[in-house]
Amino acid sequence: MVSLNYNNILKVKEGLNEKELLQYQKKFVEFHNNLNQKIKDKSGMLGWATLPYENFEVDKILKMVRQVKNKFDTLLVLGIGGSALGNIALQTALRDKFWNSMTKQQRKGYLKLYVFDNVDPDTAKSLLHHIDIKKTLINVISKAGDTAETLATFFIFYNELVKKVGKLRAKKHIIITTGPKTGFLRELVNKGYSQYDFTIPENVGGRFSVLSPVGLVSAALTGINIKKLLEGAKNIAELCKVGKDVDTKQMFGNPAFMFALINYLLYQKGKHICVMLPYSDRLYGFADWFRQLWAESLGKEKDNNGNIVNVGPTPIKALGVTDQHSQLQLYREGPNNKLIVFLSVEKFSCEIKIPKFAEEHYLCSHTLNELFKAEEKATIASLTQAKRPNMNIILPKIDEVSIGELIYMLELATAYAGELFNIDAFNQPGVVLGKNYTYALLGRKGYEVYLDELKKFM
């Protein structure tokens, strides 16, 4: 099971001591009970917490996969933020790095995956020319159903699809994943624009939605075992006693709370930056996914009492060993204002020997695995020697179960962190104004009032 090693936090002067942690045992019980009550009452946006138990629309997704698997070659996901980052993280972690270059036979009939999560016209043009849209399924994802970026790209690719296959056949290429009741995409579902539609539960926010149809549809279509993902998430839910009572002694056995608590306490000591540093190319997508989860959840102007607090740790992504040669110098000798979180893998899926060379060399008696691990251990030791707080999230191996565990642990940690900071971890008011300004600039009715505000800043 995924575990948390924070020994180096206790070793360095700039870190924490056990007494500081022990002071939060009663708070742990209080915060845990608060979250449990909200989950039980189905109040707020904690629907993600019960997804591992519900298997929400899983059978419907798997039925769809059986029906379309051999009819299409490519899946194109159109979404942004929480409607895309989780999909990318799952794909990069659990599929071959060059999956899209493999033959259909090598992919065992499962689909290639492209995720377009921006509105850059150059990328749109390249993608339009690269994919064979006649063999492509398009999964358009937006919980609100009105996300401007997602709808814009959908209109472009749908128009191209209709040109190639006609309006009647276009429906068979469309999957819509959206909220259950309202929004433009829900209207399209009701008008019959899609062959398949999936629901994002109302009480599951976008950045917490990867274990809902938002992430599970694309995962299943590329051959990822989505039941195993949910099994892994359930493992952590059980370990952390989600939905159950706890006592103070159980705090140290709860990796999600300990991750949140360490981040919170170090934030109070000026460690305002959290660097996610995976030592695995396959986990780099999770550094991206975590950035949104942590930043959008915890970066808040006001606390739950309405006080102006302007809090929020800044998440940074890096990659071992690549960024030992670009960022480590800063992390070790620059401002001591960071917590470094290593994503460590105990066992890789293969072992690559470094072959003998014509000239004798010390590397030739080792494997890439040994070199990779030596680099990671050396970096950890180097940071610890420089009194830089660091800890490890350890995955036994990279598979569906461990990835499900990692996802749920970090989602639960985010919820605990919201309790610690006394802020609402499930809203994002700072994003709304920018969206309203965009609508005003594009002439959307009802948003004219924002044009006057815009003039002050343009």
The CATH superfamily of the largest domain turns out to be Glucose-6-phosphate isomerase like protein, domain 1
Q: Let me know the number of strands.
A: 12
**Unreliable runs:** none
Strand order, main sheet: write it out: 1-12-11-7-10
Portion of residues in beta strands equals 5-15%
Which of globular, elongated, flat, extended, rod-shaped describes the shape?
globular
DSSP helix fraction? 40-55%
Coarse structural class: alpha/beta
Integer count of domains: 3
CATH-scheme architecture of the largest domain: 3-Layer(aba) Sandwich
**And the CATH topology of the largest domain?**
Rossmann fold
The number of helical elements comes to 19
Global mean pLDDT: 96
End-to-end Cα distance: 52 Å
What would you report as the Rg, rounded to the nearest angstrom? Answer: 23 Å
Main beta sheet, described? 5 strands, mixed
In the CATH scheme, the class of the largest domain would be Alpha Beta
Describe what you observe in this structure.
The protein is of the alpha/beta class and 458 residues long. It has three domains: 3-37 and 232-427, Glucose-6-phosphate isomerase like protein, domain 1 (Rossmann fold), CATH 3.40.50.10490; 49-224, Glucose-6-phosphate isomerase like protein, domain 1 (Rossmann fold); 432-458, no CATH class. Helix content is 46%, strand content 13%. The protein has helices spanning 7-11, 18-22, 25-41, 51-54, 58-68, 85-94, 121-130, 148-165, 167-170, 184-190, 213-221, 226-239, 255-268, 284-298, 328-333, 368-385, 400-421, 429-441, 449-455; strands at 3-5, 74-78, 112-116, 136-142, 174-178, 196-199, 273-278, 300-302, 308-311, 314-317, 338-345, 390-395. The strands form three sheets. It has a five-stranded mixed beta sheet, with helices on both faces. A hairpin with a 5-residue loop joins strand 8 and strand 9. Helix 12 (226-239) crosses helix 17 (400-421), helix 13 (255-268) packs across helix 17 (400-421) and helix 18 packs across helix 19 (449-455). The longest helix is centred in the last third of the chain and has 22 residues, at 400-421. It is globular and about 65 Å long.
